[in-house]
Amino acid sequence: MMGVCMRYAKDSYEAEDMLQMGFVKVFTKVAEFRGEGSFEGWIRRIMVNTAIETYRKNMRTMNVVDIDEVYDQPQSTFDMSQLETKDLMKLIQQLSSGYRMVFNMYVIEGYSHREIAEAMGITEGASKSQLSRARAILKEKLIKIEGSNYGTYAG
Amino acid sequence: MEPMQDKDFDQLFKHRFESFEVKPSDRLWENISGELDGRKKKKRAIPSIWMAAASVVILASAVLWLYKPVEVIRLQGKSDSQLAISDKPVVSEETETDSEEANRPNELPLSAQSVKRERTLVSRNADVRSVKASKRKETLPAGKVDPVQDGPMLATEMIEANELPKTDILIKESPVVLAQHDPVTDDPDIESEPSKQRIRSVGGLVNFVIAQVDKRDNKIIEFRDGDEGAAVSGINLGPLKFKSRNK
Fold it and tell me: What average pLDDT does range B132-160 have in this prediction?
């Protein structure tokens, strides 16, 4: 579960806070678990919900405006096997919180845009655009990393 | 190579992170169990503490606002209207008792006492006078009669006996009169104070209402009528005070 929280947090400290909050919820609400689906999946949903709550709280306190506008969308391939998962984790954590939330929820958790929009209190369109921007930023960063590691990848 | 599709890109990430796990720090489990234990206590303990603190604050502020001003005014001699009213009939009866022995209904214990004293004084004086008169009358025409001489002898004894308590009563009486006299002289001053401040504006009205509640020199809020309507001229929130100079 720490891995899940890590994806939603900007660093491991925030991830641990999330994990703690999530587990406290798990223990206090364990009686509400009805055995539908796996227990791990249930815990995972709680963790994601905790992450969403944290995100909304943070939004209220500090309104982070993302100025990371991406003008060119590089379409390239990456040799992802060359990268450690923790490097990818770093990239995700470097995303601004809004992008990170949408990317995680859509790509890894498999939420629909409508679900994301509902959970985060944004429109579906905003969810879609944030996802594409998040993808673009990640791709750009991956290219940079690959470039620094292996030289310019001539595909 | 063909440009990577979003689906593939997503799939890569999903594949990587689906089973990805990180070991959290060892301290975390302690924190979680600690939070779970403390949760039940916290929810009930903290509100009661806050309620207690709030009640203390309310009580303290109530004492500060309501109790102190009354004391200050008593020290300054601005007596309550009740006291002044209760003193009035005492004084009037006192003055009237000299001319006639008052048979008034004694509503107030204070006036009743003084009236009683006055009565005894007057009656004793009357006794003395009558005795003196009888002495003179009886000594002049019938000075040779023995049994009559016993009368004056008794009378003089009575005079001596009566004169001592008489002076005593007079001394006791005088401070009572003085004490009762003071509030009477102060009375017009107190009554004239509110009439001086005439209500000309909303600020004046607020001042009047506050003056009824807040008896301190510096009111909790004070307004002054300026050229541009009423403006706040003074604030007194206990430790925080403000008062404009040009009043």
Answer: 48
